[in-house]
Amino acid sequence: MVKISLCMIVKNEEEVLRQCLDSVKAICDEIIIIDTGSTDKTKEIAGEYTEKVIDFEWIDDFSAARNFAFEQATSPYILWLDADDILQEEDQKKFKKLKEELDDSVDAVSMMYHIAFDEFDNPSFSYRRNRLVKRDRNFKWIGPVHEYLEVYGNIISSDIAVTHRKSDKSDVNKVNDRNLIIYEKRLEQGEAFSPRDLFYFANELKDHGFYQRAVIYYREFLATKKGWVEDEIRACINMAACYRMLENPEKEIEALVLSLVYDVPRPEVSCRIGDLYKGRNLFKKAIIWYRLAAEIELEDHQGFLQQSFSTWYPHLQLCVCYWQIGERGLAEEHNLKAKYYRPNDSQVRFNEKFFKEYKEKNS
Asked: Is the pLDDT of residue 73 over 70?
């Protein structure tokens, strides 16, 4: 059985740190907490789980802090988490099994990261991250903000998921200014942005409501032609979202179609285009795109995964569109397909009641 060091960087995480550490304390052989300037009870809570609570002077560089944390580890493998991450009970069991069976030839293990959830608490936005890495490979974190762990070699994909859970008291809709401030400082200092920097800076601008400026940086990122394909597709989708907020539907659809340069239509892209046609009452055209979203088979990839756009959502929209063009049988059929994924959805139930009453009235 391999031994694992948990490495975390934290600041003012008293609301969430305990739930994180409780979920992994039985898995990790060593816990290392790097504090970057907490003024609450974060360090006191961390001290309940480990003696290795170490101060690190914050220098506006997440990679520097994470690399420092990794340098403190002594176990053969390193697990990293953020304070608002947890392992659900089922994933804890899977992780313990992985720990027992992991071959030391493995350099890294990727895990799913669930960061958003629907009203039924099902993951609605997920992607993979390399979570467990071999210490003696000396993998490094890169980038002052939106940092990434550069990993290579023998990498395996596990079915373990890390779940992002904010505290009940946190404002999930609040946008943190920290990352945007770091990027702005770097710009003021004349630093040249990498393609990855351009993409994430544009994301920060979008999240803060600076839509016009975000579009500029998305286009600059795409112009480099050096980005990861998943980021290129996401840039098109996010750029479309900016145009939607700017009430420019022509540019919105243009941005969505641009994503086809990089790969087959992703379900989200198809649904967004379908929404635009449906909004104009062009139901037959909308049907084409919703069907594409529901039927296309994508190869397994490391990009962002939003299950709704390939499962219940296009079927629910197809139900509406087919009803509007008089295809009542197909409308009911697609409502049933939506029900398979979301049996308790209020719209699905409303449609069922509507179909029942319609049949009774017209029988």
From this structure: yes
